[in-house]
């Protein structure tokens, strides 16, 4: 994938949705949509590093985040238009959310989009969802997979709390955890054994293939 992270990040920091979209469409033409999402992820990580180094302001980072969300909406719209609707007897379901206090939800929007593109019925509940509301919605929606996201070690106790509560649901959803916390730490030592740890977006492809071959309620450590 021929992506120049600094160039694309510059378009995003300038709030230029049109140039960002054109650049991504050209660079990822003919490739699986995961290439599109992975490029956005790399840019947002780069922009986050610029913010940590005080090279950009909070306002700059918010502009780039807004562009990223707009691009994800464009991508979702185009994928829905291109993909013929398939109506199996029962579509697999997935819901995605950030634990309470986690405000960075771009990653789960990407993952939710990708699941939807592969025929799943998805719901993305966004940033900072309280545990009781996550459980309440899951009871109503009854997903096969529940994806949790967190980015800093401070949220590790919350991740465990969410997993333990959601594992008690009677329909037995598989629980997956992603985000920077999963990428940078060995969560296998901190999470229940059946938790699926997703370290990067490319592992989502393997997970979707796997979930197409197992019955509702199974889980793996990808």
Automatic annotation (TrEMBL):
Residues 91-221 form the B12-binding domain. GO terms for molecular function: cobalamin binding; metal ion binding. It comes from the Bacteria. It holds the Pfam family B12-binding. This is Cobalamin-binding protein. It comes from Metabacillus mangrovi. The lineage of its organism: Bacteria, Bacillati, Bacillota, Bacilli, Bacillales.
